[in-house]
Amino acid sequence: MSTIVRQMVLAVLFFFLFAFFLLWLTFSTFPLDNWSLLRQQTIYDVSYIYFVFALIGSAGLLFGMFHGSYWRKKLKVLSKQLDDLLKGQKRSAHLDESVTELTQIQLQLNDIEEKMSKQTELSQKLATERATERETSLQEVVVQERNRLARELHDSVSQQLFAASMMMATINEMNPPDDPTMKKQLFMVEKMIDQSQLEMRALLLHLRPVALKGKSLTEGINELLAELKQKVPLTIETKMEDLQLDKGVEDHLFRILQESISNTLRHAKATQLQVILIERDQNVIMRILDDGEGFDVQEVQSHGSYGLTNMHERAVEVGGTLKVVSVKGEGTQLEVKVPDIRKGGEQRD
Question: Which residues lie below 8 Å from residue 268, measured CB to CB, with a gap of 6+?
């Protein structure tokens, strides 16, 4: 039964009971000699008794309808507020504070909303902490596994490739076959082994990245290039300024450098590599140049190069830009420019 119908029924019953009480009180005080006069007396051609019953019923229906409509509106507002709370939304309706009971309910709803807001905030905070812990734990596992794979590859496959390369070089230099076709094939095998060594070194560079923990970006780059010089036949030149940058910026620039060097080792067939790290006009600029084969930048980007995409995303994450210029047969230049937004940072000439 709806609120309005319930109120109408209750109002009609109340009006009838109240009317019967008044009539009983009246006729008890002023008794009639002849009760049939009530039935014979008419008002607007309607029997007095029927007129009174109709008047009482109509008054009860109207009062119940208006009273039920009033409380129905209040209950709808209350229902809307509770629905907003369940959905985690800000309450859009407010109860009528002129009614004491509704004011008390309003205060209780305010307390519930505040507690739910604090509970939600706490839950999100806990979820964030758990996610951070899982990410940190996962990252540690990934780093440990990458280091393990790097060690195993270096101790097994890399050493075997080096031994095979030495054996093929010895065969081709000391006792080359007389058959020109066989001799050409042996030289091709030697080149394939050398290329596989470069691929393996690039892979090890990815799997076992030099950590920047406790080091500046310049120190990390110097350590990486020093290790590279011992393993790769490249002429490496550097021009670096000792910059003090935020750790996030340093890490992203260092990973971009690793990715670029890896691409150079795997694809460029370069003999010279130049790394520049400077600051100009409050912008940190890192350039990596090689004299390798070069490539068509637009063609590589259209095919969705993971390396270029990864470097571009890292540059964007620290508010910088990445520019790659490459000409086939003339080499490649990669430039990363990141604004130095540190307060009080000095502008270099």
Answer: 290, 292, 293, 294, 331, 332
User: Exposure pattern of 227-244 as b/e (b: 16+ CB <10 Å)?
Assistant: ebeebbebeeeeebeebe
Q: In what order do the strands lie in the sheet with 272-280?
A: 235-240, 272-280, 283-290, 331-339, 321-327
Boundary-marking domain end, from 70, 94, 118: 94
Please, are residues 217 and 257 in contact by the beta-carbon 8 Å criterion? no
Structural domain including 325 reads 214-349
> Which segments of the chain have a pLDDT < 70?
1-4, 27, 30, 32-41, 48-49, 87-101, 120, 124, 131-132, 135-136, 139, 142-143, 145-147, 150, 152-155, 158, 201-213, 342-349
Provide the greatest CA pair distance for the chain. Answer: 153
Q: Are residues 87 and 100 in the same domain?
A: no
Of 71, 94, 117, the domain-final residue = 94
Number of domains in the chain: 3
Q: Which of 105, 86, 144 is nearest to 94 (CA)?
A: 105
DSSP assignment letter at 177: -
Q: At what angle do helices 48-86 and 100-153 cross, to 10 degrees?
A: 20
111 CA to centre of own chain: 31
pTM (predicted TM-score): 0.49
pLDDT, tens digit (0-9, with 9 covering 90-100), for 51-109: 777 777 777 777 778 777 777 777 777 778 777 777 666 666 666 666 666 777 777 77
Strand partners, 129: none
In the structure encoding, which two tokens stand for residue 259, read together? 């990715």
What Rg value do the Cα atoms of the chain yield, rounded?
Answer: 44
Instruction: Tell me: do 126 and 147 sit in the same domain.
Output: yes
Signed CA dihedral, 294, 299, 303, 309: sign only: positive
DSSP character for 98?
T
pLDDT digits (tens, 9 = 90+) for 234-259: 899 999 998 888 888 888 899 899 88
Q: How far apart are CA 319 and CA 339, in angstroms?
A: 7
